[in-house]
Amino acid sequence: MEIILLNSNNLVVPSVSGMEYFNENLYFISDDSNVVSKCNLKGELIEILGSDSLEYEIEAKKDKADSEAATLLSFENEVYLMLIGSGSTIKNRNQMRLISLESGKNLYFDILPFYELCRSKLKIKLEDWNIEALAHFDSKLFFFNRGTNSIIEINQNEFISFLSNPESNIFLRSMQLELGELDGISLGISGVTTDSSGNFYYTASAEDTSDWYNDGKIIGSAIGSFHFSQLAENLKLTPSPFTTDGKLISTKLEAICKFSENQFFVASDNDGEASELFELEIIFN
């Protein structure tokens, strides 16, 4: 894989944690501000959905919803942006929000029962639970847990039914990812997007921290891809380091979306510094 940096811009959107492309615009979510930002393809802010203001209210770490992942899906004959909390604590971080990008309708759900079911069935401890990415393909949803570098697959209709009736039966499929290291620090999944052909494109980052609640030193990031047909119980991947002039860029990529055949946007959250938007050409071997 060859990664060519075409352009980069600072974003006014704070702490970007997810991004989607729809109708020539980019939609960003933030992990410390419970809003959705609509921007043009240069990353310039157009509006904060549902607000007359262009100002952000930063939430305290202990109180924030920690919206960490987003994807687009069709629901009730409309295109919705689905965003979810990381679930890394029992309090505050277990909300799901659906926003129609056509009518503006908002729906809210408590997904703590779903997260608890996943942790129970898959024997994952709360301290190892941190949903960082979400993807949708072939009527299925894929939750990516950075805490264990694992994927949880569920049928979209079963998931929606479970939200209204937690007693309903659902089938969970779990897969393990191996992503390797950067400078001796393990890479953890941080962002995922898909296309209509079943290709999954992902970002992974290396952060020197002992837990998923506290931030650590950012080592760098990497980008890779796999196909839906490759999904198996264990999937070993070799992402390409995000570099410029052969040097590792010390940034934490958090989101990726596909713009055209070989053009992508990736966004970074640099923990207190300005978020950045990178436009890339990616040539797959």
Shape: globular
Largest sheet: 5 strands, mixed
* Helical content class: under 10%
Structure class = mainly beta
- As for the CATH topology, it is Neuraminidase
Tell me the β content: over 45%
Distance between the termini: 5 Å
CATH architecture: 6 Propeller
Number of strands: 24
In angstroms, what is the radius of gyration? 17 Å
Series of H and E elements? EEEEEEEEEHEEEHEEEEEEEEEEEE
Tally of alpha and pi helices: 2
| Strand numbers in spatial order across the main sheet | 10-11-12-13-18
Number of domain units: 1
Mean pLDDT: 91
CATH class: Mainly Beta
> Which residues sit in consecutive blocks of at least 5 with pLDDT less than 50?
none
Which properties best describe this structure?
mainly beta; Neuraminidase; single chain; 24 strands; 52% strand; 2 helices; globular; five-stranded mixed β-sheet; 285 residues; five-stranded antiparallel β-sheet
Please explain how this structure is put together:
The protein is mostly beta strands. It has one domain (2-283): Neuraminidase (6 Propeller), CATH 2.120.10. The protein is built from 2 helices and 24 strands. The strands form 6 sheets. The chain has a 5-stranded mixed β-sheet. It is globular, with a radius of gyration of 17 Å.
Describe the SSE topology:
Blueprint: E1 2-11, E2 16-22, E3 25-30, E4 36-39, E5 45-48, E6 67-75, E7 78-85, E8 95-100, E9 106-110, H1 112-122, E10 131-137, E11 140-145, E12 150-155, H2 156-164, E13 173-178, E14 181-182, E15 185-194, E16 199-208, E17 217-227, E18 234-236, E19 240-241, E20 243-244, E21 247-248, E22 253-258, E23 263-268, E24 275-283
Parallel strand pairs: 13-18
Antiparallel strand pairs: 1-24, 2-3, 3-4, 4-5, 6-7, 7-8, 8-9, 10-11, 11-12, 12-13, 14-15, 15-16, 16-17, 17-19, 20-21, 22-23, 23-24
